[in-house]
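Hi R.,

Here's the chain you asked about this morning:
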Amino acid sequence: MCNPRRGVDNILPDLTEIGQSNREYSNIAMHIARHLASCLEDEIRQVVEVVRQLQLQARASLEAKHQLLSAEDKLECLKKQLHECKSVFAPHKKLPADVLQYIFLLCAKGAKIKIPLRSRYWHPIPMVLSHTCASWRSVALATPSLWTNLEVSHFTCHAPRLLAVKDVLSRVKFAPLSLSVFQNFPEYTGYILDNDLAAFVDTLQRQLLAPYRIQKLSLTFGLGYSDPNSATFTMGKVQKILSMSLPDLQILQFAMCDWPFTWGVSELAEFLNRHESINEGSALGGLPSLKELDLDCHAHFYKGVHRYIRWEQLRTLSFQQISISWALAILSQCRCLEAFAVFQLTAYTQEEFAPAPLVQDILISLPHMHRLRLSISHLNNEAIRRFLSPLAFPNLKYLLYSAPHEPDKTTWPYQYDPLIYERLQLNTLQELRVSGNFCLPLTTWKEACALRRLRVCIPQLNDEDASDIASGILFPLLEDVYMERPRPSVEDPAPFFRMIEGRQKRAREAIYGEGVEGSKPVSPFKRVGFRCTEEYLETYKNQIDILRNGGCELDIDMVLV
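And here is the predicted structure, written out as tokens:
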């Protein structure tokens, strides 16, 4: 038998660490590795036979038992050496470059390259792939799409960080780029906002945006200055950013944290009025391909930037904070809008920052909008009606209502309002989600008779509601439902199981014509979710198995008592 370790000192240098990396080997090295593997296989077969014999003797002899342990250790060592030898011939080493590129892109899908790194022990997937071996590095560097999701934080005062960003961007070439930028401007003694912000905007424009095809851009600023002139200067720089020529930009997310509008309000108002008079009637933006916009700024922000956005071409629009008057003024220009979200709708804005009044009794029809998300905390029904009255969503299918933490029970949806009901198209909605900790009876939404999906928080599922849903009196077309309860740990989930079993039975009867003649069709549940304790899960284990085997997916979140 050949000895796999004989002459190991004379082995080729590139085989001394065989199996320890993903490197490629020369033809001579691969021939030697194949010979080593053959020798190891021979020795493994012999050691396996020795182990088998020692296993028979180990029960009667302590010495044989020790020999068995030693032989087993040797066998494991030989198997490891064989695995290392065979790794030289691993199939992935023969994969074509285009196949490797596809695999790399699947591995890195959705992953961001974050600079600075989270820690020196963590690296983004593209960097890990490019550091594996020379072959993989060449493939990774030749795959621009692998480097197109970049997130950068606080680079203006860190030259090495900016160099790292530019190094990654050099690999993007002409591929569409998704770029996220976070930058704080805290107020420190000796620092001037004008200089810091001007340097940031200049670097952003010249080095990060202009040379590349930016398809998605997320900008988040933190401003801590209280200088009366800081708001005016900042607004000027925001306008400069929005007027940049970015012909490929489709998605823009813009957030200003700690916006310095509590200082210099009169100076800012004067600046905006002067700016409005100079540019009256003109559109100033440089974003011809923009389709999706998310703005998170102070309510004063919109007077300064509304001329820089081509609202008529937007398909998706989201506001984190905006007044009713500005929301309506902007929506009146967004006739192609498909999805709209507002997370903090306020009743009024200061007069000097208000938009031009709309034509009286104007109707803002948004025929393409099918998704609406509303957060209307601290608004009474009069204010809600003032917002919804001019709007028409004839094809609305999805509504997400974010409830306030301390809801006012004198307002909608606690109190029925016919105009709100009509505008939100409750009778034609296909999906309704109510987020928040407040609970409303299911009958609050009884008019939503076309729902396919529903997620709500309810006080409890009583027998009457469970029976009405099972029979199809409530939500006859509902297929996917998740109901949260405030005290799931102490309530028996029996009504849920009765509801599901009754609904599935009623749906089967409707399919086979066994129901009451003339009754409306009822859809079976495809998915039902709720929470309960482990104790109740054990109690209803058989019913859970039967329902799941019958085609109903149960999404049961277990809670601890």
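One quick note: The longest strand covers residues 214-223.

Cheers,
M.
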